[in-house]
From TrEMBL:
Pfam families: ROK. Signal peptide: none annotated. Belongs to the ROK (NagC/XylR) family. This is ROK family protein. SUPFAM superfamilies: Actin-like ATPase domain (SSF53067). InterPro entries: ATPase_NBD, ROK, ROK_cs.
Length: 321
């Protein structure tokens, strides 16, 4: 994994499709001979109608296939839910109505080989490939908090294929309970929902994530406090990773993470304050692909197939969005 390699490269086997299934939206990118010919983001509709959501996914895939002008060779899917070997959703805290439902079904009409991968893991791989980094940590902050680890040019997937769940590193044992049931997970304190709640308390007024981003741009005191709060907690998690895997680079992405431009610098400052003397620290920056790292990873999976992640079956759990 040396040098820069764009996600739409010449290794793409003709027509392929990338799909990112997130907690609040779908994103699709159709690629023909290494060139993106169609890209669309579709928000999930309000309500808990899994059948309707499945139909929306199927229709969005059909639209992209239509733009390609024929069945893609392969579809790469970056999945937020935890998916079993049979293609059915095992858990999806943000959309519990999908549990037990097939995530393969909406792709049946595509005529393509369909490969699933963890959304944040694929994002980490895309960031490593596009930046030429052999040792990288990716942290995606949005509806949930996901992570991907690349060490020595290889993905770290673990014994069960789901390593890198950085959102479940405990950074505050007395903190709020995470949807996984544990107290103080990183996801419980720096997800979009958690940061909006912190900003609301700091501001004394109900505040959305969009308002938080705007407040950070204006350097409003209440927004600065929330930014520092997030930086401190993320630095605690990275402090562990610095000792365990020694990344050279950390990339902050996801819908909210990419929008908070000053966040990487704040994290770097916090991390340096707790560093062991003489120990090198990673360079921390915004994601190369901004909020679209998972989609870029899905495009890589579509282009290169299972060998992209070491030849293992990439159908495994996603980040808890």
């Amino acid at each position: 994994m040396t040098g820069t390699r764009p996600f739409t490269d010449s290794a793409a086997p003709g027509r392929v499709l990338a799909v990112d299934i997130g907690g609040t939206k779908l994103a699709l990118r159709a690629v023909d001979a290494g060139v993106a010919v169609h890209e669309r983001t579709v928000p999930w509709p309000a309500g808990g109608d899994a059948a309707g959501q499945s139909d929306l996914l199927a229709a969005s895939v059909a639209e992209a296939v239509g733009v390609l002008g024929g069945a893609p060779v392969r579809i790469g899917v970056a999945a937020a839910p935890n998916v079993g070997a049979d293609g059915c959703v095992v858990s999806w805290p943000n959309r519990p109505e999908w549990v037990g439902r097939s995530l393969r079904a909406p792709f049946v009409g595509s005529g393509a080989e369909v490969l699933f991968g963890d959304d944040a893991t694929l994002a980490g791989l895309a960031e490593a490939r596009s930046t030429g980094s052999r040792d990288l940590v990716y942290l995606g902050i949005g509806t949930g908090v996901g992570g991907g680890l690349v060490s020595g040019g290889r993905l770290l997937t673990g014994a069960w294929g789901t390593a890198g769940e950085l959102g479940h590193l405990v950074v505050d044992p007395q903190g709020p309970r995470c949807r996984c049931g544990t107290r103080g997970c990183l996801q419980a304190v720096v997800s979009a929902e958690a940061l909006a709640a912190h900003a609301s308390a700091a501001r004394g007024l109900a505040t959305t994530t969009a308002e938080l981003v705007a407040g950070v741009r204006r350097s409003d005191p209440w927004a600065e406090r929330t930014l520092d709060h997030a930086a401190d907690l993320i630095a605690r998690a990275l402090r562990v990773l610095v000792e365990l895997v020694q990344p050279a680079h950390v990339r902050i992405g996801g819908g909210l993470g990419a929008a908070l431009a000053p966040l990487p610098g704040r994290i770097a400052r916090r991390l340096s304050e707790t560093a062991r003397p003489g120990r090198p620290l990673p360079e921390i920056g915004s994601a190369f692909h901004g909020p679209h790292s998972s989609l870029a990873g899905a495009a890589l999976l579509a282009a290169h197939g299972p060998s992209l992640i070491g030849g293992a079956d990439p159908l495994h759990g996603g980040s808890p969005a």
